[in-house]
Amino acid sequence: MRHLYWFRNDLRLNDNPGLLAHAGADRLLLVYLWPRNRPWCNVTGMGEQRERFLVENVRSLRQGLLRLGQDLLVLHGSPEVVIPELVRDYRVDRVGASRAPGYYERRTVELLRRRLPVPLDLHDTGTLFDEESLPFGSGALPAHFTPFREQVEALPVAAPVPRPDVLPRPPAAPFNDVPESTTRPHTALPIRGGSVPGNRRLRQFVFEDQGIARYKTTRNCLDGLAGSSTLSPWLANGSLSAREVAAAIRRFERRHERNESTRWLYFELLWREFFQWRALQDDRSLFRAGGGARRLRRCTFEPRSFTRWCAGDTDYPIVNAVMRQLTATGWASNRGRQIASSCLVNELQLDWRYGAAFFEKHLIDYDVASNYGNWQYIAGVGADPRGGRHFDLDKQAREHDPDGTFTRKWDGDRPPQPVHVTDAADWPIVDP
Ligand SMILES: Cc1cc2nc3c(=O)[nH]c(=O)nc-3n(C[C@H](O)[C@H](O)[C@H](O)COP(=O)(O)OP(=O)(O)OC[C@H]3O[C@@H](n4cnc5c(N)ncnc54)[C@H](O)[C@@H]3O)c2cc1C
Question: Which residues partner with 31 through β-bridges?
Fold first, then answer.
């Protein structure tokens, strides 16, 4: 039997039930397709840091496969076109891939399934639980996080599955090296993609620095690697699995201590889990301005405000600092994301989807479910029982950047700008 396994957001050998399910084939063709970034909300392409981190993940996966006598065929193109061609050319009998929660990703899989002359197996590789172990059917997921957490908190998480010791040989295919990215990590967040750096960070945060033991008090820190785990980039690309992180938390609790902080870190994994299952249920409404309830809020599109927000050039220094951190490093803390998104929604009164699209372009931890789910939450059209969040930006700056170090580091204090640069007839206003 000849199988084809299509890697998606599960770029790892460890704890990969999808890959393992195809490890018994006689021949195995392993494939990765570069994501196609559709232009959306005035945003095109992929930010340099996000692309760099992804390239590093793919290169690292390929290195791991080469050590097992395998290889990775890395191609461009639409999955529903490329994969059926590969199936035909390499006489493949069965195809496997991981399940992805996003609407467009699922639509691609459905198109692919229709065009494939062979069976397509989907595997849960990105969540803590699989669908059968959830206490509610997929159509009856709680609308809010708290009832979700209460029902899943005590559920056992399956132990990570081991990496395969051997893999079937690949068919003779035109395997190619994946060129290195020319972008370097920013010095403020010197992290690289791949399972080895991801596992190293997990070990460092949990066991070496024991940051997990005080996480509840440090998690709002605005800098990467300083207070929260900063594991999201590897989790989002799948070079680290949520079950591996959950297993490390449990190990720490057994060997050292279980406290409010260790529990809180697990809660955050449950937030991630909640958004993964919500995205599946929300379907296309994850991208609607009014969300699933079609709760429309007053907003506008003012191109200058959006451009200033993207460039970190607004009248709010703390927001500017977060936006500059985001575009330079590809990451911002949860607190920083809340501050920047609240500003776009409430102060600038823009359509939240423009902000989400800009985050999608730049975040090295971009994940469709977490990104759009959190944006909907802040905008009050998603899973927030309070109907949205409006952060007081001055208060946030006083609490989380009391001496202005973060704002200065990212050059957040920008020169004042006129409120209007064009008149009512759209002519530029020129100072006499
Ligand atoms: C507007 C907005 C957009 C966001 N977009 C994304 C995104 O595209 N990808 C993404 O992974 N996270 C996103 N988040 C959630 C959160 O900000 C990041 O997961 C977190 O900042 C990552 O840093 P960390 O790994 O240090 O998190 P920690 O605080 O150490 O948490 C541990 C892990 O729990 C998960 N987690 C924590 N908070 C959340 C949350 N609110 N929602 C979902 N999962 C969470 C992450 O996987 C994280 O790595 C977004 C939040 C907001 C407000």
Answer: 6, 73
Give yes or no for a contact between 388 and 380, defined as CB atoms under 8 angstroms apart: yes
Q: Which of 264, 270, 334 to mutate to test the pocket of ligand 1 (most atoms within 8 A of CB)?
A: 334
The protein residue whose alpha carbon is closest to atom 16 in ligand 1 is 334
Select from 362, 370, 377, 378 the residue to mutate for testing ligand 1; criterion: most ligand atoms less than 8 Å from CB. 370
- What domains can you pick out in the chain, each with its CATH number? 2-125 (3.40.50.620), 195-287 (1.25.40.80), 303-409 (1.10.579.10)
Mutating to test ligand 1, I would choose from 157, 365, 396 the residue with most ligand atoms within 8 A of its C-beta, which is 365
DSSP annotation of 169: B
Q: Pick the closest to residue 332 from 249, 226, 413, 211 (CA basis).
A: 226
Ligand 1 shell residues, CB under 6 Å? 219, 228-232, 235-236, 265, 268-269, 271-272, 275, 333-334, 337-338, 341, 359, 363, 365-367, 370-371, 374-375, 378
Instruction: Tell me how far the alpha carbon of residue 271 lies from the centroid of ligand 1, in angstroms.
Output: 8
Residue 143 CA, ligand 1 centroid: distance in Å: 19
Is the four-CA dihedral 36, 41, 45, 47 of positive or negative sign? negative
Q: Which DSSP string corresponds to 113-142?
A: HHH-SS-EEEE--SSSS-GGGSSS-GGG--
Q: What is the pLDDT along the chain (432 residues), one digit of tens a residue?
A: 999 999 999 999 999 999 999 999 999 999 999 998 889 999 999 999 999 999 999 999 999 999 999 999 999 999 999 999 999 999 999 999 999 999 999 999 999 999 999 999 999 999 999 988 999 876 789 999 999 999 999 999 999 999 999 999 999 999 989 999 999 999 999 999 999 999 999 999 999 999 999 999 999 999 999 899 999 999 999 999 999 999 999 999 999 999 999 999 999 999 999 999 999 999 999 999 999 888 888 788 889 999 999 999 999 999 999 999 999 999 999 999 999 999 999 999 999 999 999 999 999 999 999 999 999 999 999 988 888 899 999 999 999 999 999 999 999 999 988 888 888 888 888 765
